[in-house]
Specification:
Strand content: 15-25%
Shape: globular
Mean pLDDT: 91
Largest sheet: 7 strands, mixed
Low-confidence stretches: 1-37
Helix content: 10-25%
Distance between the termini: 37 Å
Strand order of the largest sheet: 7-8-9-1-10-21-11
Radius of gyration: 23 Å
Number of helices: 15
Length: 552
């Protein structure tokens, strides 16, 4: 599964999940702006941070958003976390299974997890293999509103030879076993406690979802919906006690309010900062802004089940009309890397594809071929008496995204296409199909936000035929047999070099058929007070390393 940013919608744009940043030194050559220490409004060891997202559940089985992924890294139970170099490291597993260490069988169909002993849930109950088996069964339970089951549905049998060993028997090898199987990098389900949820027919409406019990350095204390989440140290965490005494996460949908509260000391950290605000946060005395290349790609999605977007000529025309360099510069202040592929350049599986150029002449010719030859009095194309008008769905509160949409409006109007913009609260925008979510329900012609990339490049859940919601995150509702065949080959190969040609061909297919247009790979922007110490976000799960984070 993937974070929709994880669910960020475009440029602060909060996934669909996942779900995340690279080191403290910018890969653009900037280490941020350092100024004299400013004043804070909070006691020492109390961190107050915010972003612009909203969500409907604290259980990552049931909701996907980057902000929830960060909270889950701090509080929930995982087999594997990720280090500063985006490499998997064992958490509740004692080692990361591989073919070399025997954790994965020679035929790739058996994965063995060895679990830590003496670990406790934050309520004091012991953790063991029963919890991992139950959590796996929860994902596979069709009554649960899981975001997707890609990979999980390959599990044919689960063995529990003892209370600290779990063995997955698979139909076939599964290269994306990390992070899919209870890893923090991505919009993935966590391990959940059998002793609390094990007797329920489903977990969809369990009180647990509002204040989950987990196994992390922090535990949930309070959630005021639409406002804030409070966390405190988990004294039972197996690694020990973190340095922070309290973390308060604030949900502030308006970016100007976020900026003001950072300036006044009400906020210590703005995570997922919109690129359009970076010049202003860089100018705040006593603060640092870092902007490393990240793992999220901004995109324009087409609902390919809605005419006229079911015609590939139309989708290609709309892409030809986009001046993506101008969008990146004027809406997002060059806050990312312009490229055609959705695979981030910081990942080893990155392959450079030539950019499709801006070509208005080509765009007009393709629309003419598709039969949109008539024009009404204001220049909008028509076909069979119908105007070429598209409903463009975005979330509220992001001025940079609004700027992007207005640029796109002018670019598409130049070829005779109009858009009707509809704004939604992020909680509704990214809600699951079962809960009426705009993106997952397909209630759009065009939409924009960010997807967080899978660490190995698996794109199945985003674009595979079998993963249209509610079965996955294929919100564009595209189905292409060649893409599926490429990903099927890709996913059974544990050797990165062997699977690379299939990934390259799959990306080429996406570029050719245009269910989505990649705008850019964004920089991960964080603005924070200089009083914050030890914050070193990675590109996949930026809150994975919080044991030594502190603030004075």
């Amino acid at each position: 599964m993937r974070r929709a940013a994880l669910a960020v919608a475009l440029c602060s744009l909060v996934a669909l999940c996942g779900c995340v940043k690279t080191g403290a030194v910018s890969q653009t050559g900037s280490t941020g702006t350092q100024t004299s220490t400013g004043e804070r409004r909070h006691p020492p060891h109390v961190l107050v941070y915010a972003d612009g997202q909203n969500f409907q559940s604290l259980n990552p089985h049931l909701y996907q958003a980057t902000s929830l992924g960060n909270l889950s890294s701090l509080t929930m139970a995982w087999l594997v976390r990720y280090d500063h170099d985006n490499k998997p490291i064992p958490e509740l597993a004692t080692e990361v299974p591989t073919v070399d260490n025997g954790g994965i069988s020679k035929d790739g169909k058996t994965i063995t997890w060895h679990l830590r002993r003496g670990v406790k849930w934050s309520d004091g109950a012991p953790f063991d293999a029963d919890d991992v088996v139950f959590s796996t069964q929860a994902v596979l339970n069709p009554k649960n509103n899981e975001v997707g089951r890609d990979g999980w549905d390959l599990i044919t049998k689960i063995d529990e030879p003892d209370k600290y060993t779990v063995v997955y028997h698979m139909k076939k090898p599964f290269a994306s076993y990390l992070p899919t199987f209870f890893g923090t990098a991505g919009a993935n389900p966590c391990i959940i406690p059998k002793h609390i949820l094990g007797n329920l027919p489903d977990i969809n409406t369990a009180p647990y979802n509002s204040l989950p019990i987990g196994i992390g350095p922090f535990k949930y204390v309070a959630w005021k919906r639409g406002d804030s989440v409070v966390m405190e140290p988990n004294p039972l965490y197996w690694r020990g006690m973190p340095k922070l005494k309290q973390i308060i996460y604030k949900q502030i949908p308006d970016r100007n309010t976020l900026l003001t509260q950072l300036q006044t000391g009400e906020l210590d950290l703005w995570s997922d900062e919109g690129a359009g605000y970076v010049p202003r946060t860089e100018a705040i005395p006593g603060h640092t802004t870092i902007k490393p290349v990240g793992s999220y790609f901004g995109h324009v999605d087409f609902n390919v089940t809605h005419p006229p977007l079911d015609d590939v000529r139309v989708r290609r025309a709309l892409r030809f009309a986009l001046d993506r360099a101008t969008i990146l510069k004027e809406a997002f202040h060059d806050g990312g890397v312009l490229q055609e592929s959705m695979i981030p350049p910081i990942f080893p599986q990155y392959h450079k594809f030539d950019m499709v150029p801006t070509d208005v002449t080509q765009a007009n010719a393709l629309l003419d071929q598709a039969g949109w030859t008539q024009r009404d009095k204001d220049g909008i194309r028509m076909k069979n008496g119908k105007r070429f008008s598209l409903e463009y769905a975005i979330y509220t509160g992001a001025a940079d995204v609004d700027t992007m949409v207005e640029l796109i409006r002018s670019m598409w109007k130049a070829i005779g296409v109009e858009i009707q913009v509809k704004h939604y609260d992020t909680g509704l925008f990214f809600a699951l199909l079962q809960n009426g979510g705009i993106s997952y329900s397909g209630k759009f012609d065009v939409e924009s936000f960010y997807w967080g990339s899978d660490p190995i490049g698996d794109l199945t859940n985003l674009y595979g035929c079998d993963f249209i919601p509610p079965n996955g995150q294929n919100v564009v509702r595209w189905c292409d047999k060649q893409f599926d065949a490429d990903m099927a080959h890709f996913k059974v190969l544990y050797d990165p070099k062997a699977r690379q040609p299939y990934l390259d061909d799959a990306v080429a297919r996406l570029i050719d058929q245009v269910p989505t247009v990649v705008l850019y790979i964004r920089y991960d922007n964080y603005a924070f007070t200089n009083a914050l110490q030890g914050f070193h976000p990675n590109a996949l799960a930026p809150f994975d390393d919080f044991m030594n984070v502190d603030i004075q």
